[in-house]
Amino acid sequence: MSAKILALDTATENCSVALQVDDKVYVRSEVAPRDHTKKILPMVDEVLKEAGLTLADLDALAFGRGPGSFTGVRIGIGIAQGLAFGADLPMIGVSTLEAMAQGSYRKQGTEHVACAIDARMSEIYWGRFARQEDGTWTSVDAECVIPPAVLAEQCPSDEREWCTAGTGWEAYQEELAQLKLTRKQGEILFPDAEDIVYLAQFEFAKGNTVDAEEASPTYLRDTVAWKKLPGRE
């Protein structure tokens, strides 16, 4: 029996919530780049009401830990921590890049996914993932933020076919066309809480949870994030 886990994500333009109870998943998702703070809590209320549960009934709270928009990641983790504190729930951070890989498998059945999120400033958040027999994913490349032209120079050739995921592929078509990878067009542009809650089940089963005060984001571009903090300009 799976754990009762609520997941939320606001790391990119997509705002999403998912609640898994046994084999049933309740989902809300909307591309709303400037309205995350307005939409995320009503979405949480809706899925809990649909499932007939309260936060106190849950086993854990999962969140998209990034990479993604600095503001979006910060909003997501802040709201998730507030909910977890109030209900005394352990937390599980899930990579937004890995969530897109799982989304690609859910949509297209692809087991090798190359994820690229437009990171602005002529860079992308990059990661490649290979699906394992047990349904988990192995990271082929360490997640990084990198100029796409540099990635094209450094990424080794690979005979496997890679499904693309994320906004970076469209934003930097010319540069990423130089990659020595066989690619097929994917359908996933953004991470979604539906895939975060799936991945969180594996982490919960392994005991990989943290207390709310220990939950932390993944920015990758830490120096830029540090400069944006109040008083650190």
TrEMBL record:
UniProt keywords, alphabetically: Cytoplasm, tRNA processing
InterPro entries documented for this protein: ATPase_NBD, Gcp-like_dom, T6A_TsaB
Gene Ontology BP terms: tRNA threonylcarbamoyladenosine modification
Record SUPFAM superfamilies: Actin-like ATPase domain (SSF53067)
The keyword Transport belongs to this UniProt entry's keyword annotation: no
Record's subcellular location: Cytoplasm
GO cellular component: cytosol
Keyword match Signal: no
Domain Gcp-like intervals: 30-227
Classification via Gene3D superfamilies: 3.30.420.40
Superkingdom, taxonomy of origin: Bacteria
Similarity field: Belongs to the KAE1 / TsaD family. TsaB subfamily.
NCBIfam families the record matches: T6A_YeaZ (TIGR03725)
Official protein name in the record: tRNA threonylcarbamoyladenosine biosynthesis protein TsaB
Source organism: Vibrio sinaloensis DSM 21326
Taxonomic lineage of the native organism: Bacteria, Pseudomonadati, Pseudomonadota, Gammaproteobacteria, Vibrionales
